[in-house]
Write a structure and sequence with these properties.
The chain is α/β, with parallel strands linked by helices and 420 residues long. 56% of the residues lie in helices and 16% in strands. The longest helix is centred in the middle third of the chain and has 90 residues, at 137-226. Residues 1-11 and 396-420 have low confidence and may be disordered. It binds adenosine-5'-triphosphate and magnesium ion. Adenosine-5'-triphosphate binds at residues 315-316, 318-320, 342, 344-347, 352, 357-361, 384.
């Protein structure tokens, strides 16, 4: 089980990205710098190192050259004498640490027994280890080998981390790009869908509406001409009239649900219609606050806001068991803030994520597509608030005033008629 998960997690990474091969940490390939003012010691150590297979020993007898050498080559180990003219080993380590920081190769100091204080200071400023003169060469080799291996591992890890970071950045960019493309596609589909809805709504309204009106007229003529003389017909004609009226009303509702005609009068009119529809359908009390200064939104944005409120209402109807709903639209710093608040049963936000439900996701996506954002806050037992912020302009650029109380009264009155 764990194996297969790992396979999934690392399956499409470039081969070898997670492995550090032996070749990457072969100590014999290490570049070693010897720093000692005593040339005899340098010669002896170089010869011994070569004899043990180390291919790249480099040396200098002047500590002042070390910085430049480190800039030019990437060393895996510096073998450093502590007592030297011009600059002692401690000063040199301090200088190198200041310049190269963590990229500095490990420093193995070679000191005389008497240099105890100096040795401690060298360790204090960052020397990795020491051997005391006169030293056993095999001990020096063993300590050097350990430090080289550790450094090579660290280096390989740094390289690997950099590659992983690059890969993660690359994949993140791909992901962001593909999410953006999906959003753009969704936005395009939404526009097409709305246009199609508007077309169907128009056709239903105009074509079917015309025929039904003609039918209704014919029923009236029938009634006028024959019902007085043939009383048995009256009941049948009355039934036809009821049927025609009901059909007209259904056609109007279907067309309005596709795209309310009031949408052509602007978002405010459409929202008022939506609220009164919601009240008469559910009997739930609902208030609406609109900015007195009006709202300036193009059709695409207005339709999106309308759909957000519509989806919130659908959720209230399906899930909330609410007694009150408050809808408010206000303009704030160039954004239209739409809020639908209910006092229903609420829900645990964490239980919803991951569920195959698209209403809340659609609300969020609609807002993001338009350069805004949407949030849903809900507490079990304390209701739900859906809030979307959509970039907009106010009509005439004026600041909005609080509310339009007249409309609030209309909405509540409509509810009261439903629930005497
Ligand atoms: N106003 C609300 N009151 C209580 N619970 C809600 C409310 N709105 C959403 N929820 C909870 O959040 C869940 C997700 O809502 P969402 O609208 O995303 O999906 P849905 O309504 O279940 O299905 P659909 O995809 O058809 O909209 C709901 O199943 C419900 O549990
Ligand atoms: Mg829903």
């Amino acid at each position: 089980m764990i194996d297969s998960q790992q396979e999934i997690a690392t399956g499409d990474l470039p081969r070898g990205l997670l492995d550090i091969s032996d070749a990457q940490v072969d100590p014999l390939l290490a570049r070693i710098l010897l720093v000692d003012d005593d040339y005899a010691i340098i010669r002896m150590m170089t010869r011994m190192l070569r004899a043990h297979g180390y291919r790249k020993p480099t040396f200098t007898t002047d500590p002042r050259d070390v910085s430049e050498l480190c800039r030019r080559y990437e060393f895996d180990l510096i073998l450093l004498d502590l007592s030297m003219p011009h600059m002692d080993g401690v000063q040199l380590i301090e200088q190198l640490r200041a310049e190269f920081g963590v990229d500095l190769a490990p420093v193995l100091v070679v000191t005389a027994q008497v240099d105890h204080g100096l040795r401690l200071r060298a360790l204090g400023v960052g020397a990795s280890d020491y051997v005391t003169k006169p030293f056993q060469f095999d001990e020096l080799l063993a300590r050097a080998g350990n430090l080289i291996r550790m450094h090579m591992y660290q280096h390989a890890m740094r390289v690997r981390n950099r590659s992983l970071e690059e890969l993660v950045n690359e994949r993140t960019e791909e992901l962001v790009r593909s999410r953006q493309e999906i959003r753009e596609l969704a936005a395009h589909n939404e526009l097409v869908r709305e246009a199609e809805r508007a077309r169907i709504a128009r056709e239903i309204h105009d074509e079917l509406g015309q025929y039904l009106t003609a039918l209704s007229l014919d029923v009236s003529i029938l009634e006028m001409r024959f019902c007085a003389s043939v009383p048995a017909l009256a009941e049948q004609v009355e039934s036809m009239r009821r049927l025609v009226d009901r059909t007209i009303s259904i056609v109007r509702t279907v067309a309005s649900q596709m795209r309310p005609a009031t949408m052509n009068l602007g978002l405010e009119a459409a929202t008022e219609w939506l609220v009164s529809e919601f009240i008469s359908r559910t009997g739930i009390a609902c208030t609406l606050k609109l900015p007195a200064a009006g709202i300036q939104l193009n059709d695409e944005r207005a339709t999106a806001v309308f759909r957000i409120i519509q989806e919130s209402f659908t959720n209230v109807m399906r899930h909330a068991a609410a007694r009150h709903v408050d809808v408010s639209l206000r303009v704030e710093a160039g954004f239209l803030v739409v809020q639908v608040r209910d006092d229903g049963r609420g829900f645990e936000e964490c239980t919803v994520s991951g569920k195959k439900s698209f209403g809340l996701m659609g609300i969020r996506e609609r807002a993001i597509i338009l350069g805004g954002e949407a949030q849903v806050h809900s507490v079990p037992g304390q209701g739900t608030v859906v809030e979307a912020r959509i970039p907009c302009q106010e009509k005439g650029g004026e600041a909005s005033r609080e509310s339009e109380p007249d409309f609030e009264r209309v909405a509540i009155a409509a509810c009261e008629r439903q629930n005497p």
